[in-house]
Amino acid sequence: MLLTKATFYVLIIIGNIVTASTPECLSRDVVAAGRPCARACSQDGTCRKRNKECVCDGLCGLSCLRKRCPTLTVPLNGNMVVNPPVRTIGAEVTYSCNDGYVLSGQRNRICQANKTWSGTEPMCTDSTTEVPSQECAERDTAAAGRNCRKACQPDGTCIKDNRECMCDGLCGLTCLKKRCPPLPTPRNGSFVINPDDRIIGAEVTYSCNNGYFISGRENRICQANKTWSGTQPTCTQPTTEVPCPILDLEDGALAYLDNNNQRIFEPHHGDIRVAVCNDGRLLRGTSQTRCISGSWQHALPSCEVEPCSVASLERYNMDIQYAVPPGSNEIEAGLKPAGTTANFICRQYGFEASRTKRCERGRWRGADPVCLRIPCDDELLENGDFTYTLNGVQYEDPVHGVVRSYNCYAGYTVEDDRPSQCDAGSWTRGLSNCIEIRCPTTQLDNGVLEYRDIDSRVTLDPKHTDFRIATCNTGYDLQGAEETQCLVGEWEDELPVCLEGPP
């Protein structure tokens, strides 16, 4: 470079800016021809806007350029993103660390009005234990006046699964949301992250500048392992000469249109491919895509047998078991492939209607299932009858849910008195019996006991209403009731005794 003065000046190069070590600088009208230059400084060497300063900008001479902070170095085993990347006043740098390393220091720094970065440069330290680097500020002494997140547990863990224990500068060991690393901006493009703090589940959407087209996926997701799904797309300029291939869509049709929506037969750059499936088929993939430099922007979709929505069966308020046909393709949540059978199960009652539906052409076919109270058999109880109750209410018939209790006639008792319940037409226990109540037999010292029924017939097994007759041997007198009756398993009178009489 030829200088017009006899004296050479020492030039300090900072990025693309050249600041003269003396007030003199190359004249803009001499050497800056053809180069876009910023506004020239005022004659007194100042700039109108406060966020700009008068510096020597190489061939452009003294120019008003935005104030900038110095270039930062990327931390070892880490990354950083400056937004905006030109490092103007107010720009913010965000630091992150590679897998296996944790940030020790402040995550963010600001380019201040004095052209210095706030705080100090953080470090990425190896994380081989549960608790991150122990060289971290104590919260109670260093974080006064700062709004800090919840501190880590004593063992260096966090209660919430979506957070991790990290050193957060002055806040010390803190539970911070898990984040994916910052993303570089694609050349000739941009991206938007929602939400913008790169937490698990955040989605980044890429776009390209005018005249450029995206090559690769437009979207990426921050995954649970703190990595972005897919790969970084690129923004490329089109190649119009190479046509895109003509394809066939099984069980559907493809149409090729130009920018005026006119049908064409040889698609080139910028033309559109539209996919439509036959009736009863569902499109899986992108229905419309564009030809970019000889390649289709999206893969060919497929036409699958239309599935059925699970949500449409929720109105029945029943438990459902699905039987998916073997070999069916994987399908998204809430949908079942064609041929799937839905088996309905009543939660309270039995069935008196169809209990299955089948997925056909996107609809569940078959009669609507209905849950009704199916009654149980009103069985015959010899020497007794039943009482049916449900929630304290007595029923005449054994409907679903009632509990059956036994009522035996006088002189009879139930053999097994455990209750039985009607469950969808079946009793939970088998039928018990009402058996006769017997009175005990015994011996009479110095006498004889005889048992007879109500018709005076002798019996050896006295039952309800039978009689017991006592007779003493010769020389003995009876003390007590000579005759007594069996009533509900007990003798009406106590056993008499035979006492020796007078000589």
TrEMBL record:
The residue range of the signal peptide is 1-20
The keyword Cytoplasm appears for this protein: no
Domain Sushi stretches: 67-126, 178-237, 242-305, 437-500
Please give the SUPFAM superfamilies that the UniProt record associates with this protein. Answer: Complement control module/SCR domain
Q: Which CDD domains match?
A: CCP
UniProt xrefs under InterPro entries: SEZ6_CSMD_C4BPB_Regulators, Sushi/SCR/CCP_sf, Sushi_SCR_CCP_dom
SMART domains, per database record: CCP
Q: Transmembrane stretches, by residue range? A: none
- What Pfam families does this protein's entry cite? Sushi
State the UniProt keywords alphabetically.
Disulfide bond, Repeat, Signal, Sushi
Name under which the protein is recorded: Sushi, von Willebrand factor type A, EGF and pentraxin domain-containing protein 1
**Biological source species:** Holothuria leucospilota (Black long sea cucumber)
